[in-house]
Automatic annotation (TrEMBL):
Keywords: 4Fe-4S, Iron, Iron-sulfur, Metal-binding, Repeat
Keyword Oxidoreductase carried by entry: no
Keyword S-adenosyl-L-methionine: no
Name of the molecule in the record: 4Fe-4S ferredoxin-type domain-containing protein
Alphabetized InterPro entries for the sequence: 4Fe4S_Fe-S-bd, 4Fe4S_Fe_S_CS, NapF, PSI_iron-sulfur_center
Amino acid sequence: MSERRALLRGRFDLPRHPRPIGALAPMAFEEACTQCGDCARACPEGILMRDAEGFPVLDIREGACTFCGACTAACETGALVAGRAFPWRAAANDACLSKNAVQCRICEDHCDAQAIRFRLLPGGCSEPQFDAERCTGCGACAQPCPAGAISLHPFTPQPLMETRPC
Ligand code: SF4
Ligand code: SF4
Ligand code: SF4
């Protein structure tokens, strides 16, 4: 692969869908996955669906991921590999009731990681703020949300700042 092509591939190889835990980077995943469905059948939570192209996708509207690893263990093609970070974090959109001055803290109540805090806004509104360092991307906050406001978004950890001598 040419250097330029590798660069372009790296730049655009961003995840579009939350795949089962352990998924390779998007292009490598779609090359390796045979769409056999073994991961979905192995998932005790029943939260792995097929996307429009037939690849497995984690649907947190159906429930939360416990990170048990059954999907990864069931995958025989190498599309899912144990030990890879899960690069997804939760966030709420503007349908959130609290953002619209309706009292609600349901998502916070369902987050075992204590990743959600509320910031008060003018007009009796408040905004759920998701701590990307605490959030595991489990999705347990999404299904109970009465507004259906929560979804997963790609997360790239920020590299540590390089310290240079003055
Ligand atoms: S078990 Fe592996 S190859 Fe089969 S659908 Fe799941 S990710 Fe794809
Ligand atoms: S549960 Fe949903 S509606 Fe309620 S505060 Fe959280 S994001 Fe907003
Ligand atoms: S996805 Fe899981 S860890 Fe992240 S905010 Fe929701 S419940 Fe908490």
